[in-house]
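Re: weekly structure request thread

Next one in the queue (410 aa):
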Amino acid sequence: MSQYRSDLLRLLDERGYIHQLTDPEGLDALTASRIVPGYIGFDPTAPSLHVGSLVQIMLLRRLQQAGHRPIVLMGGGTGKIGDPSFKDEARTLMTAETIAANIAGIRRVFDRLLTFGEGPSDAIMLDNAEWLDRLEYIPFLREVGQHFSVNRMLGFESVRQRLDREQSLSFLEFNYMILQAYDFRELARRHGCRLQLGGSDQWGNIVSGIELARRMDGVEVFGVTTPLLTTADGAKMGKTAAGAVWLNEDMLPAYDFWQYWRNVDDRDVGRFLRLFTDLPLDEIARLEALGGAEINHAKIVLADAVTALVRGSEAARAASQTAAQTFAGGGLGHDLPVLAVPAGGIRLAAACTAIGFAASGGEAKRKIAEGAVRIDDRAVTDPAHLIALQPGQDAKLSLGRKRHGILRGT
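Done, posted below.
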């Protein structure tokens, strides 16, 4: 039984989202008594977010499900700097045109998972460039900078780690914390925002925003962070050997997205069902209790549900059917990734890299030498093996038992 009385905190608690709260009693009372706008910021560093951002997107979905107003804040302003939190080095600076294109691409996933509009609990998307680009440096330092202690900023773990490793932290990046705090204060002023949510790496930035709003405007605002999300084997969410697991279809085919969830560790199934699906908690408890080979059914339910949310029900159905044909039927599913093989053929190592089974030629060669790569279910251990196909002829390329693709002659 949850300790909270508000629908929002009960929902977040029961599904495993809560790591830290700045004032649990105050936030519980506020969200139990009125509609509360809450925000999460996303820096537009690519045309799509990846699975590592999905827990934050789902946080905004939970906020709306509990009757509150999600604010999606795109970092059109802060994205020109880049968040240094727990990064080993500075990000490459992006042009305004690149940032605008990335924001347009990122918007698509939010349109699936949130309801936007003018109603009291309808989501809105804002861009912090609206106020950050207009700041004048000297007035900003006088008005806002006086409220920040450099000693305290140096004490935050995200900053201290960079300094302890003797890795450069530019003055530009150091300003990010101040700008994010200023975002919270501006959203409180402009939109009545009383809550910032984020990952545990954002704790220092969130606390700074809460203190700034109190010192400058006398406004009480709150913060919630989620646990650091890793898989059961300690890997970072959203990363695979072949690269990032992108949320947008044009960055990663639906079948590969579905397979990512189908292949999760048995120990992660229940946790991921709570975080990333809308399935009822009693049904999730039943699924995570399945033992032996039956846990695979729970993984299929997970893959279907997450893919339907992020990509749409038709994409989930097609990916699931492709998997069934490939694994159970021994055939070639229509939704598998396809690599066009030129008339002169392609070497096996190059095919593995091109279809996304390996991030480099060296990695592909190692997998092939280990006997993990098969063509039409026959192991091939020579990286230089030439794959030559007639126009329209298909062959199945497999990595292990769970990754498959189609080679098609042209």
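Residues 349 and 399 are 12 Å apart (CA to CA). The longest strand covers residues 403-409.
Next request, please.
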